[in-house]
Amino acid sequence: MGIRPGYLTGFGIIALSMFLATCVPAQEASDWVGRLTTIQSHKKAAFQAGPRLVGLPRDVALSAVHSAWPDISFDGTKTGLLKAFHFAQHPDALDVLHLGATDDSVLVREYAFTYLRTFAWRDFVADPDAYEPWRETCIGKNVEDVLHASVTAWVEAFLDANDEERDHLAEELDRLGLLGRPNTKTFRPSVLRYAREVGLPETLLSPNASIDRDAQRRMAGAALSSQDLRAGGDANKRYFLIGRRDSVPGAGYKLLLVIPGGSGGEDFHPFVKRLAENWLPPGYLVAQLVSKSWTPDQFDSAVWPTAQSLIEEADFTTEEFVESVVADVRSRKRVYENHVYVLGWSSGGPPAYAATLTPESSIQGAFILASVFKPPYLPDLAGADGKSFFILHSPDDFIPIRMAEQARDNLQAHGARTLLETYPDGHGWPRKLDVVMRGLEFLEKDSAPVR
Question: The pTM is what?
């Protein structure tokens, strides 16, 4: 039925205007849902569609992302949207990052947690269980209120800490980039103001001082060399070889292979270099493996495919990858045959177990941190005979400590030397990293000859 000219007057015109005003944003949000679900590119989501989306009215942008999220099949699209809202300093950034932090994909969750550091002033990648309680405290608050509370709590903890704890917190301040960097898209001057008001020392407040501290750490690490290599010339077998620029030990280098947790990518390289610089006994080379994504959704189930967790598309298992790296390092450096070990944490734990237990393995011992132990998905535990396992686990971890206890007991029953230590910090690395040196010294003791 048509509307006769002149029929609408007064309140009728106002009502029609209000109706149209609500319909247009709803239709625009619906259109955006269709666009977002078809994007299959991180860059398009982050730098093309994302910036246009965040420029729309808040209700349109947020409604579109919430509606589209369950139907977005490509992780890169989700991470691109997280980046767009974060870089724009969008007032609803925390709501969008919450979608990422609770996503089924490990990759998307860790991407969101990385951005959330600057809002929460804590690292949820290392402590994912802490996210939901923190999120509860943010509901109904604007971003600035959340920032103010987070900065205040962190600075008060710093001021109450002893000297050793303050050193750790100061390093965390730089490592996590909590203060931000001037002239970047995500820098918020209010953060500096809040920190200064609560009493954070000026020596830590200055972004330039942070840059200077980073430079000092890089200079301290200059004694280390790091090569980006491909084992056996295979482009898919990427690893970093890290070592000191000094003379070769008499019997050759001890070798530590590192299988990172999370998505296992090159992002962990700075952290692994710090371990190599500060927390390893003398005479070590470190080979950090870099994960390969064989399928778009692989990291949802198996970051490091093994012989017992096969991925049809994978050209090799992680056990084969480990042996290729050992052989490649041996072709370049003199390696102490009886001292080849593997360090794996979180998602890197199961492949570290598997690589050590595999018959004819080059690995003499494994350092396992914050990881599951599932014998049905491992080689025969008889392969533990004569090997050493240092297991580090927190009773506060969401992974039950009974798994670490089972690993200790089952492996020992099959002839392994085992030691289980605990720490109080939940899932992820403990605050005191000297445990790495202690763990490796345990593995080195009575290291059995290579078979």
Answer: 0.56
Rounded Cα distance, 42 and 325, in Å: 31
Looking at residue 23, its pLDDT comes to 46
Per DSSP (E only), the strands in 26-89 are none
> Whole-angstrom Cα distance, residue 19 to residue 311?
53
Interior/surface letters 250-259, b for 16+ CB within 10 angstroms, e for the rest? eebbbbbbbb
Q: Where are the domains of the chain?
A: 11-140, 145-205, 225-444
What's the token pair of residue 108? 């998307």
Closest CA to 325 of 252, 258, 246: 258
Given a contact cutoff of 8 angstroms between Cβ atoms, the answer to whether 147 and 188 are in contact is yes
Spell out a b/e string for 400-426, using b for 16 or more CB atoms within 10 Å of the CB, else e: eeebbeebbebbeebebbbbbbebeeb
Model pLDDT for residues 301-337, shown as the tens digit of each residue = 789 999 998 888 999 999 999 999 999 999 999 999 8
Measured CA to CA, the distance from residue 279 to residue 432 in angstroms comes to 10
HSE (side-chain half, CA atoms, 13 Å) at 425:
17
Backbone angles phi and psi of 361, in degrees to 5 = -65, 145
Supply the DSSP string of 285-301, one letter for each residue. EEEEE-----STTGGGT
Per-residue pLDDT band for 43 (boundaries 50, 70, 90) equals: confident
Residue 130 tokens read as 């802490």
Rounded CA separation 289/228 (Å): 10
- Pairwise CA distance, residues 136 & 23, whole Å: 32
Q: What is the mean pLDDT of residues 418-438?
A: 88
Summarised one tens digit per residue, pLDDT across range 206-258 is 655 555 555 555 544 456 889 999 999 999 999 999 998 766 787 899 999 99
The mean-pLDDT minimum among 164-178, 182-196, 223-237 falls in 164-178
Domain 225-444 belongs to what topology?
Rossmann fold (3.40.50)
Q: How far is CA 377 from CA 307, 310, 335, 407, 416, in A?
A: 8, 10, 30, 13, 19
CA geometry: angle at 372 spanning 366 and 377, to 5°?
85
Q: For 395-406, how does the pLDDT look when each residue is reduced to its tens digit (9 = 90+)?
A: 988 899 999 999
Q: Residue 240: its pLDDT value, please?
A: 97
Distance CA 411, CA 403 (A): 12
Contacts of residue 245, defined as CB under 8 A and 6 or more positions apart, other chains included, come to 223, 224, 225
- Mean pLDDT value of segment 66-72: 95
